[in-house]
Specification:
- The chain is mainly alpha-helical.
- The protein has one domain.
- Helices cover 72% and strands 4% of the residues.
- The chain has six helices and two strands.
- A two-stranded antiparallel sheet has the order 1-2.
- The longest helix is centred in the C-terminal third of the chain and has 29 residues.
- The radius of gyration is 17 Å and the shape is globular.
- The model has no long low-confidence stretch (mean pLDDT 84).
């Protein structure tokens, strides 16, 4: 029963992120949906935070049925994949960034940065698969990695949209120079639930 509830949380989370991406596409017109609505703010927060940690719990539980620590390796992989995405986007954006993605949502993000982040992410994916850190069908591995990268990019933009609307640059000051804890979780909060969903589907298919 508990696993069924957590599974449905993950599924509903992915539905939320699809809606969030639609809202992102129509920003700032779409801002009326949450403007001055405290309950909506709370619901959005729950849709972001609860599925993130529920997904990590699901992945970790795979360890109980595997002697190869499958769950732990899959957590390490998604953290590495998205870290490469964020780091690559930052570095390539700083070095080569010229074409802005959206001046309204995030004036510092560029297409060159996104391309650099995606390339670095796929390099990390290749290395993980080449050295057999993860044991999964190569087609499904490519699909779940690709969706994780796409959701990671859009998750970052959605969080930037909310910050832009609130007229704040940083979500907090706990981590100096990193824009707050939320800025370390924005890409992960969108990518990990869809990643976990594909893992669950793979385990059912295998």
């Amino acid at each position: 029963m508990q696993q069924y509830v957590i599974y449905n949380i993950v599924v509903l989370s992915n539905i939320w992120w699809v809606i969030a991406f639609i809202i992102l596409a129509y920003y700032p017109i779409s801002s009326f949906l949450w403007k001055n609505k405290t309950l909506v703010h709370l619901i959005i927060g729950w849709c972001i935070i609860i599925p993130l940690f529920s997904s990590l719990l699901i992945l970790y539980q795979f360890n109980t049925n595997s002697q190869k620590l499958f769950g732990s390796w899959m957590i390490v992989y998604i953290l590495t994949l998205i870290s490469c995405l964020d780091s690559g986007a930052y570095l390539f954006g700083k070095l080569f960034g010229k074409n802005k993605i959206s001046k309204i949502i995030s004036p510092n993000k560029t297409w060159e940065g996104i391309i650099g982040g995606v390339v670095l992410s796929y390099i990390s994916a290749y290395l993980f698969y080449k050295f057999k850190f993860v044991h999964i069908n190569i087609t499904m591995f490519f699909i779940l990695s690709s969706f994780s990268i796409i959701f990671g990019i859009l998750g970052d933009l959605v969080m930037s949209m909310f910050k832009r609307y609130a007229n704040i640059k940083n979500s907090g000051f706990l981590i100096p120079g990193h824009g707050g804890v939320l800025d370390r979780l924005d890409s992960l909060s969108a990518s990990i639930p869809i990643y976990t969903y594909f893992i669950l589907m793979t385990m059912r298919i295998s």
